[in-house]
Amino acid sequence: MTTQPERIIPTDLSSEMSQSYLEYAMSVIVGRALPDARDGLKPVHRRILYAMYELGLTPDRPFRKCARVVGEVLGKYHPHGDTAVYDALVRMAQNFSMRDPLIEGHGNFGSIDNDPPAAMRYTECRLQNLSVNALLRDIEAETVDFIDTFDGSQQEPVVLPARLPQLLLNGSSGIAVGMATNIPPHNLGELVDGAIAMIHNPEITNIELMKYIPGPDFPTGGQILGRSGIKDAYISGRGSITMRGVAEIETIQHRGRPDRDAIIVTELPYQTNKAALIEKIAELVNDKRIDGIADIRDESDRDGMRIVIELKRDAYARVVLNNLYKQTPIQANFGANMLALVNGEPQILNLKDFLGVFLEFRVQVIIRRTTYELRKAEERDHILQGLLVALANLDPIIQLIRQAADTSSAKRELVEQFGLSEVQADAILQMQLRRLTALESEKIQAEHQELQRKIADLTDILQRRERVDQIIQEELTQLKSTHATPRRTQIVEEEGGIVDIDLIANEQAVILLTEQGYIKRMPVNTFGQQSRATRGKSGAKIKEDDGVEHFLSCCDHDQILFFSDRGVVYVISAYQIPSSSRTARGVPIVQMLPIPKDEKITSMVAVSEFTEDQYLVMLTRQGYIKKTALSAYANIRANGLIAITLSEGDQLRWVRLAKEEDSIIIGTRQGMAIHFKADNEQLRPIGRTARGVRSMKLKGTDEIISVDILPGQVVANIGTSEDEIEDENLESEELVNEETHVGPWVLAITTGGYGKRVPVNQFRLQNRAGMGVKAIRFKNAQDQLAAIHIVNQEDEMMIVTSRGIIIRQAVDAISPQSRMATGIRVQRLDDDDAIAAVALVPPAGEDDESEE
After folding, report:
1. Which class would CATH give 246-329?
2. 184 neighbors 270 (Cβ within 8 angstroms)
3. Which among 50, 77, 122, 570 is annotated as catalytic?
4. Are 224 and 216 in contact (CB under 8 A)?
5. Which residue intervals of 484-542 are DSSP H helices?
6. Which fold has domain 499-841?
7. Which enzyme type, at the first EC level (predicted)?
8. Is 0.85 topped by the overall pTM?
9. Helix/strand/coil (H, E, C) string of 647-705?
């Protein structure tokens, strides 16, 4: 009897855990989650198909209950839950999950709305023709190895003798331990063409293969945008493929009501839940993140899918559709991860690797099948040779058999006297008397000759690789002619990839963003120059509770960087913002950018080129300022990029472009201004996610309202002052002689409509974090500073009010005055209106042919 201490085996815990976990991980990887690169099947799918084949559920036989099949699989091959087996069976029967289903279902097998299938006791199934012809044929011909099942009572195939690259045909997805696979489905005909091309040219490249296999072919159709994701997946084994549903814009006629535009969705991206999509659209409409949708309904029937998205009368159908692409699963990405088992080990495979593994497997299958057929033919011919010997010596053999005491002695005498084998002797003893006729003798002779030809042919196949390749090609061609179907998924060039920027006129434009998030782009020449102190033109159809928040002048080729109060930057090309008339309201910016509901755009910057010598100067609400290289923002993701790290309660408010030799001037609501250099001594460049440093001291309830950049060539001519606050009586002159001042001016505009130009040398350079100097004296106590800008005498500016009234006028129409002056009236305002923003019009480019 073993004592207790002898049963205890000391083991290192870390080693035991490591070894046990590795064994578990490999068990999941090999035994459940990842498909075999040869037949493209996981063990559960392989066992289901083989069990159905063993049950005789071929396409020419009646359907059988799925419960019968699941029970067969569980009892013999797959010792796991019945739900897992039935789910796998159901998926192989769904024409929206499999490009070419392997099982023919009878009953409710679920829908694209993610409706569950009926219970297995109600549904029926049998094999598809494709499964028998392309996966299970020749399985009895010793083409693949068999192993014992889990209880050792049965044998099951290690792999099925696939005649098609099933892994690429229907794809696969699975999550193992520490790895996952996601392989898209493809078109059968294209895969056959690619495999045949590789047989003819084994050195073919992945790019050359893409001429035959241009990309995935999803069972639900849809579109693939661009080829870059496909190329990445086919070359490196990983890639993001952008899928998009098929939608058209139609006019819906209503009896007794005006006609309306509607977006009709007829195809969805692969694995998109239609019911969840409709629910998502409704949720976005309710949250006002999508504007312009009046109604949505599902009119799908047995003839096909039809989702009707009815639009409001004033909605732009193309804008709404683009927003649906951006915010809903009508456009989605398929993350291809081409991972499969090769010789029992997980490997990332490219397109050529997939076809190479399949073709090499087909060579082995054909060699094993040919060897099996050759052995059977030789065995049969061996028996026929013995029968021919018996027919040639018929009388002596009959005499020998009649004189023999028993069967064993007759067999022994036949072997000794006529030189036959025991197999031949047995065949002679079992031969029926009717085969002794002359006709039967001729049949035996003819069969012998036919077997001789067959043996020679099979031997030739085994000796010549080109014969094997020819057989593979013939079988592939036959399957293509029988089972190939036209491509369902259309590959279109990505919108962003086909835009030729040279074909878009680089015209001057004005971009306006309202407080409620409506954005619009208008040509600058929409607004002719107006005289000073006029009321201006309406620049947008503004609601009573809305107002103009931001105002930017740029060119259509520029990249517009949008900075949010939470310190995130987004990007879009100026020409991509829909051009609108003056009186149009614009489109919600959430239709153009993926901005969360609790985030608000606080600054816009136009960038023509991301150069190394430029910086972005950012200023927060609490007065923190930082300078970061513009190149750090050259590659902004579609969902935005962190531009600055903010402390709790702070917001990013202003962003400007600057160079190291430039200087910065900051204005406050109460009319103060500070001017300091942007060099590394005052403001050193820091990283993209850094917070920044203090910019200016503020009195009481004062707040920063504006910031602008003074060009470096002017900074050298400006003196410095160590005083934080200058005496307000030092400069009392109201007017400044323009001829005595050469260079830029500081333009100051108040909310009450007053403005002036001040020579920049009256704002002496100070150290950062000072209190600054007085920039303007207000006409009344209610007036406040709205904006300060660095301007030249030949510049033009556009002033916009909170009600959306815009005036365009020349800067030189505003008289130059000293810092302590109150300025002149630049725009007449209604009692409930105020100046909201000021923007400078950029110089006319070469492509701007408009004249004003």
Report:
1. alpha beta
2. yes
3. 122
4. yes
5. 495-498
6. Neuraminidase (2.120.10)
7. isomerase
8. no
9. CCCCCEEEEEEECCCCEEEEEECCCEEEEEECCCCCCCECCCCCCCEECCCCCCCCCEE
User: Token digits for 472?
Assistant: 């593979």
pLDDT at 297: 92
pLDDT for 286-330, tens place per residue? 988 888 899 999 998 888 899 999 998 878 787 888 889 888 999
Each as own residue / partner, the long-range contacts of residues 206-213 (CB below 8 Å, 24 or more positions apart, any chain) are 206/234, 206/235, 206/350, 206/351, 206/352, 207/231, 207/235, 209/234, 209/351, 209/352, 209/355, 210/234, 210/351, 213/168, 213/186, 213/187, 213/351
Catalytic: 24?
no
DSSP letters for 250-302: EEEEETTEEEEEEEEEEE--TT--HHHHHHHHHHHHHTTSS-SEEEEEE--BT
Task: Print burial letters for 445-475: b (CB count within 10 Å at least 16), e (below 16).
Answer: eeebeebeebbeebeebeeeeebbbebbeeb
- Which fold does the domain 366-483 belong to in CATH? Topoisomerase; domain 3 (1.10.268)
In terms of residues, how long is the chain? Answer: 852
State the helix-helix crossing angle for 82-91 and 43-54, rounded to 10 degrees.
Answer: 80
The first and second tokens of residue 843, run together, are 């110089």
- In the chain, which segments carry CATH 2.120.10.90? 499-841
User: Cβ(584)–Cβ(540) under 8 Å?
Assistant: yes
CA distance 603 to 707: 11
- Looking at residue 832, what is its pLDDT? 83
Residue 442, classified by CB atoms within 10 Å of its CB into exposed (0-12), middle (13-18) or buried (19+), is exposed
Residues spanned by CATH 1.10.268.10 within the chain? 366-483
Structure tokens at 334: 């398929």
Indicate the DSSP class of residue 524. Answer: G
Residue 585 half-sphere exposure, CB side, CA atoms within 13 Å? 17
Q: Answer whether residue 542 shows pLDDT above 70.
A: no
